[in-house]
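On clarity, I found the account of how folds are encoded harder to follow than it need be. What matters is that the chain and its backbone geometry are given together, residue for residue. I therefore recommend that a typical entry be quoted early in the introduction. An entry of this sort, consisting of the sequence and the corresponding backbone structure tokens, reads as follows:
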Amino acid sequence: MFARIVVGTDGSVTAAEAVRVAVELARMTSAELHLVRACQPPALAMAAVPEVGAAALPSDVIDALRHDAEANLAQLAEELGAGGLDVHTHVTPEAPGPALCHTAAVVGADLLVVGNRGMQGARRLLGSVPNHVTHHAPCAVLVVRTA
């Protein structure tokens, strides 16, 4: 049914629940599992707020953020791979929503799994990762109840 499943993680408890569901589905369908970690430097995220501006971060700080993200994903991929899953990792400098959708398009995903955190209240109006994904994903989307 599914050949490639994409799921994002930031190390949070809610992201872990989305990953858990994606892992179960990958095991049931023998699908490749693609773990995505958005690693947008804080200065780029702040650029969207005119009052703050995009104060440039030193390149060593940006490199450290990326290295930490890669190390965290590699550890998770190793744990899941030991259980027999075909796991691939993707660290991208994009914001989380676009990172998930872009990765899903690039790998030809059949399913993108995302947690529902941010789907209610003001965050829904202001934008959120699950909101972005449900509107822009190039494949089917499963929104997991995580909060």
